[in-house]
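1st attempt posting a full record on here, be nice pls
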Amino acid sequence: MAAVQALKQKLRNSGVTGSTIETEEEKDRKDRARQERQRCKNLKERRLETEKANVTKQEELMNKAREEIEAADRVDDQRITAIRNMQEAREAREGEERRRKEYEKYNKLRKGNLERLERERLEREWEAKLAEAQRQQQAQAEAEAAERGRQEEYEEDSYNSEYACDHGGWWAKVKGRQNCLVCYSVRKFLLECPGCQILACPKCQVGFRPYYE
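the predicted structure (as tokens):
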């Protein structure tokens, strides 16, 4: 304080007023305040630069992380697509195998049905042929029985008429393939007695004709 008073006294002696002294003090104070503000500003600017650098670094890290995530997503998408394609291919193969087995089963059943139908058709044809053969045999047996009946009746009539007819005269020729009623041989023609109309082959006709002829 003594130094300040001495300074003020010296300034008064030199003609410097108190307002001038206060102005210089104010100027010093303002300079100090300005310097302090500048220092604070510099500190803030350095802090801001540091924060900007940190933000930039964080942004770079975030961008890098985002790129890595996107790359990982692309890899995952490719893997998912590959897995989906493999699954679709497997499902297609399984579907094709299932359709093939169903087709084979259908063909087997169809073949079995066709074989069964063919077997039934052959059985029906065999039964029809057997029935037809039996019918023909029965018809033939009935025809043969009827023929034997007629033959026996004819032979009986011929036998009865043999003693009433001398079988003389001219025996007419009856053309056409037929059985001899005596020896049953097949002949191209037979001879008919003019009296009793018995039919006989030339060989058997000799036995019927009278000895005087």
